[in-house]
Amino acid sequence: MLWEHLVSDMTVLQEDIDCLEALQTSLAASDAEFIHGAYETGLLEFHGAYLAQLETVHLPQQEV
User: Fold this and answer.
1) Rounded Cα–Cα distance for residues 64 and 62 (Å)
2) Chain centroid to CA 46
3) pLDDT by residue (tens digit) across 43-62?
4) What does the pLDDT look like over 3-48, one tens digit per residue?
5) What is the DSSP letter of 64?
6) In terms of Cα–Cα distance, which of 27, 30, 8 is closest to 19?
7) CA distance from start to end of the chain
8) Exposure on the CB side of residue 59, measured as CA atoms within 13 A
9) Which residues fall within 8 angstroms of residue 36, CB to CB, at 6 or more apart?
10) Do 36 and 44 meet the contact criterion of CB atoms below 8 Å apart?
11) d(CA 26, CA 56)
């Protein structure tokens, strides 16, 4: 029973590997600019706003 479970897991894993390798190959051949999804776009906007805040904050210098 455990062997059958392992074999089925390996089958699913190999299917995922095949799909991801095909995706990677097609992305490398594409000249189109990568577009982030809504979640990533929100993170990038937060990152930009956070960096802008850090640039305006003057932290005390640490003594070396």
Assistant:
1) 6
2) 16
3) 888 888 888 888 887 666 66
4) 888 889 999 999 999 988 888 777 665 556 666 677 788 888 888 8
5) -
6) 27
7) 62
8) 6
9) 44
10) yes
11) 42
Q: Own/partner pairs for 40-46, CB < 8 Å, 24+ apart?
A: none
What secondary structure, in 3-state letters, does 1-64 show? Answer: CHHHHHHHHHHHHHHHHHHHHHHHHHHHHCCCCCCCCHHHHHHHHHHHHHHHHHHHCCCCCCCC
Look up residue 20 and give its DSSP letter: H
Would you state the structure tokens that stand for residue 7, as one six-digit string?
A: 């074999």
Question: What pLDDT is attached to residue 59?
Answer: 62
